[in-house]
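Structure (tokenized):
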């Protein structure tokens, strides 16, 4: 029969082994490069984002007519001959707001007088919400409204901000998800390249 002392010793041994195993697991995780243990999650997210992109580079951009904040309408096919950047965004989206803060200077002013159109489309929001956002931010550039997400649904199934760069012939040249300063700079350079053709 096992004595109380032997049971305590056995229990202490198991606790020590479990603690050593936990420490070993932590050490292994700390020693492995971040790309190794975080890569799987990033790869899954990238795959998911890619799967939600319905219009990719090389495809003809689906035509649409969007109601603008001022009551006018814009039809994509009527912009043929111009480079168009279709931007899906929302007022509640921090990366969208960061990107929009750069638009006036880095896109509209930079490409003024050239065959370029920046076409931001608010995804899933009312005219009143977008008007209030414009009043708060002071943005004066045109904005489209897609409260039912019907236009967005032709281009993507999830995630914003999204930029679809469309050439003068109506083909998608680039489809970008999210916002980073580096991606924005690359997109701006691509617009410059298309306008130089």
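Design, position by position:
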């Amino acid at each position: 029969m096992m004595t109380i002392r032997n049971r305590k010793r056995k229990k202490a041994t198991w606790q020590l082994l479990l603690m050593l195993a936990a420490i070993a697991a932590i050490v292994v995780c700390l020693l492995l490069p971040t790309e190794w243990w975080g890569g799987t999650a990033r790869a899954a997210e990238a795959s998911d984002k890619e799967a939600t992109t319905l219009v990719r580079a090389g495809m003809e951009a689906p035509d649409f007519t969007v109601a603008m904040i001022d009551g006018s309408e814009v039809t994509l096919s009527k912009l043929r001959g111009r480079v168009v950047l279709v931007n899906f965004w929302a007022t509640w989206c921090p990366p969208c707001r960061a990107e929009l803060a750069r638009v006036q200077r880095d896109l509209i002013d930079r490409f003024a007088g050239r065959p370029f159109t920046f076409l931001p489309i608010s995804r899933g929001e009312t005219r009143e919400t977008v008007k209030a956002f414009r009043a708060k931010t002071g943005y004066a550039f045109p904005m489209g409204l897609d409260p039912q997400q019907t236009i967005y649904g032709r281009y993507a199934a999830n995630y914003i901000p999204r930029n679809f760069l469309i050439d003068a012939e109506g083909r998608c040249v680039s489809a970008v998800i999210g916002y980073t300063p580096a991606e924005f700079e690359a997109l701006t350079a691509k617009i410059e390249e298309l306008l130089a053709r």
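Reviewer-requested clarification: The helical segments are 4-31, 34-51, 94-109, 127-137, 152-155, 181-195. Residues 4-31 form the longest helix (28 residues).
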